[in-house]
Design goal:
The complex is a heterodimer of chains A (274) and B (179).
Chain A (H helix, E strand, L loop, with lengths): L2 H12 L5 H13 L1 H30 L10 H22 L63 H18 L7 H16 L12 H12 L6 H7 L3 E5 L2 E5 L6 E7 L2 E7 L1
Chain B lengths: L2 H9 L3 H20 L5 H18 L11 H22 L6 H23 L2 H11 L5 H8 L4 H22 L8
Helix pairs in contact in B: 1-2, 2-3, 2-4, 3-4, 5-8, 6-8, 7-8
Classes of the chains: A mainly alpha (274), B mainly alpha (179).
Amino acid sequence: MNKDFDVNHIEAYLLDKLSREDKIAFQQLIEKDPILKHEIQFQHEIIEAICLQRKMELKDRLTKLDIQPASYSYWSRLALFGSAMVVLWVGTWLVWPETDSSTEPMPRISLVDPRGILQLSEPPILAMPKSINGAMKSAPRSIQLVQKPKVKGDYNSSSETLSLQSSARQLHQAEETTNADESPVDNKQIYATKLENIRSAKKPDLALPMSAKEEDAVKGLVDGSQEINLEDLAAKNKPSYQYINGDLFLYNHVSQGEVLDLEINGQEKSFSIL
Amino acid sequence: MRDSQILKRIKSGDETALDYIYKKNYKMMTRMVINNSGTEDEAKDIYQEAILIFWQRSKEKDFVLTSKISTFIYSICQNLWRKELERKARHSGEMKDGKEMNDFDKKERAEIINQCISSLGDTCRKVLMYYYFDNMSMQDIAKKMGFANSDTAKTKKYKCKKELDKLIKSKYKATDFLD
C-alpha cells in the first residue's frame, strides 16, 4: 500500500474533495482496514486542532479591536430621549401652530378640506345639551366639519351649492315624513336623484321640481347677477360648535354640502355636514 | 467601502477587511443577541463565530453572495444563537461519567497536538492554517507568503504537514488514538 497515496487520499476524504463514487469506494475500504480507520481519525484530529488554533488567533485579533459595547449606555439613552422630544416638539409645532393671545381651542382639521385651520371669534360650546331633539338617527357618528375660510370673494359661487343645500334639506324632510299623504318613496327618489346629479358634477336638472326661489337663486349665481358676500353671511350667522349625541357639530348657515335641520332645546337650527 | 471590494479583499486573505466588517456591524449583531436573552459576552462570541464562518465560506469557489454582507452575517448570528439557546435548554443537567472520561482523553490529545503545532516554525504554521482553515488556494498562499509560485507553496505545505505528523506520533503511539 502506498503510504503517500493514502495520506493524500485521506486528506481529500476528510476535506470532502472526493467525488461521490470515490467517496463510497473509500468508505468501503475504511470498513475493511482498521489501521486506515485509525489513521483517518488521527488526521482528522490534527486538522481539527489546526483549525481551532487559527480560529483562536483570529478571535483574539477581533477581541483586541477597539469597539464600544453594544448595550445602551446612559448617555446614548439620554440622546435617544432628547431626539424623541425634539421630534415631538417639531411635530406639534407643525400640526398646531401658535394662536393669538386668547385661549381659543382650535377646531379639528378636516382631511377633506385642506384649506387650513380657522380661528373662531367665539369658543365652541363644549357643554352637552340636556335635552336633545332632532333627527340625528340618519347622521353618521364620525363626521368631520369644515368651515370655509373668511376670505372675501373666496366663496365658491357655484350654482350647485344652493341647489345641493336645498335638495339635502328636502331629502331630509322627505325621510322624516314617513306618514305623509304623499308617497315618501317618490319624494325621496326625486331629491336623491337631484342630489346625485349635482354631486356627480352634472348640470342641475332644472326639469325636476324646484321652488321659484331656488330657480332664481341658481340662475342668479350662474349668470353672475347675484353675488354673495361671505362676510355678511358670517356676521349674520356666527359659527358655533355644539355637542349633539357626543359628536361635535358646526352650526353655520354658510356651508357646503348637506344640511340637517335639528330642533335643540326648543330651537330649530341648521347644521352642515360633509 | 463597498461589499464587493470587501469580499475581494477577504478572498485574498486580507485580515484588515475582516476587522472592518467586524467593527462596522458589531452593534447591530450583538444587540440582536442581547435583545434575545443573551449577555454582552455571549453576543460577542456568537458574532465572532458568525464572522469567522463568513470568512471561511467566502473563500469557497462556488460561493456567491446574493445579499449584503451584513444581512448574511446577521442570518448566521440568528441561527447560531438559536442553536445555542436550544443547547442550553437541552443540557441543563449534569453529564454522565462515561461521556466525561471520553471527552477528557480527547481534550488531552488535542492539547498535545496544539503544543506540537505551536512548536512548528511560523511559516509552516501559517501555511497549514491558511490551507486548512482559511481555505486559501495554493496561488493565494504563495502570494501572501511570498513564495515563487503555487507549486512551491504546495511542496512547502506537504513538508510542513509531514513534519507535524512525525512530531505528534513521536509523543504517542498509534494505539493511543484507539477509543
